Amino acid sequence: MSETLFGNPSLPAFLLASLVLAATPGPGVFYILARTLAQGRRAGLCSVAGVAMGNLGNAIGAAVGLAALLAISSLAFAVVKYAGAAYLVYLGIKALGARSTAEEATFGEAALAPIFRDGFVVALLNPKTALFFAAFLPQFIDPAASALWQSVFFGSLFVLIAVVTDSLYVLTASAVSPALSRLDDARGVARYLSGSVLIGLGVLAALSGSRSAE
């Protein structure tokens, strides 16, 4: 099973796309940065862990649903793939059109258990996260292998990559907090970068077609 997963020809493309998306600042990153600046490095890293567990729950949920759907027929695979591609483009367009608003975040004393819980609940109960995984993961699934294990593998790998990039943000923020005074300017750049990446992924996915039809 592991040889099949690591031998997937889409793995390099998945790693690159995941790294770009995970490293691009979004709402989760700004939430973690706010925790770090307000309560310190330990609070930031605890937030990273909570958000990661919530995202993992969404990834596994999306994987189970995808496996059940993709097992029906090759037509279902094609429908999910093109629907996912369209949703990625939609997310990209929405990101490009969104207004950057700076929100003040204030937190109390750094109690790690509540911080972990808050990050977990916020990530787990975000329906957009599950929809993102449902749209993103099918672009890299080999229909000749188990859809369930591939989805779980890719979803878990994405979460792991996000943990690394988010932790780097925390460590950087705690070390160079004065430089983050220019965060408002960075929001606009991050928004355009994230939107462009999502649109590009959607277009490439749509143009690639569905291998299940072969």
Describe this structure in words.
The protein is an all-alpha fold. The chain has one domain (13-213). It contains 9 helices and no strands. The protein has helices spanning 2-6, 11-23, 27-39, 41-70, 74-97, 112-124, 127-136, 147-175, 183-208. α3 (27-39) packs antiparallel against α4, α4 runs parallel beside α6 (112-124) and α5 packs across α7 (127-136). Mean pLDDT is 74; it is low at 100-106 and 209-214.
SSE blueprint:
Elements: H1 2-6, H2 11-23, H3 27-39, H4 41-70, H5 74-97, H6 112-124, H7 127-136, H8 147-175, H9 183-208
How do you describe this structure in short?
By secondary structure, the chain is mainly α. The chain contains nine helices and no strands.
Beta-strand residue fraction: under 5%
Question: Percent range for helical residues?
Answer: over 70%
Structural class assignment: mainly alpha
Q: Tell me the overall shape.
A: globular
> What is the H/E string?
HHHHHHHHH
Q: How many runs of DSSP E, i.e. beta strands?
A: 0
Could you report the average pLDDT, rounded to the nearest whole number?
74
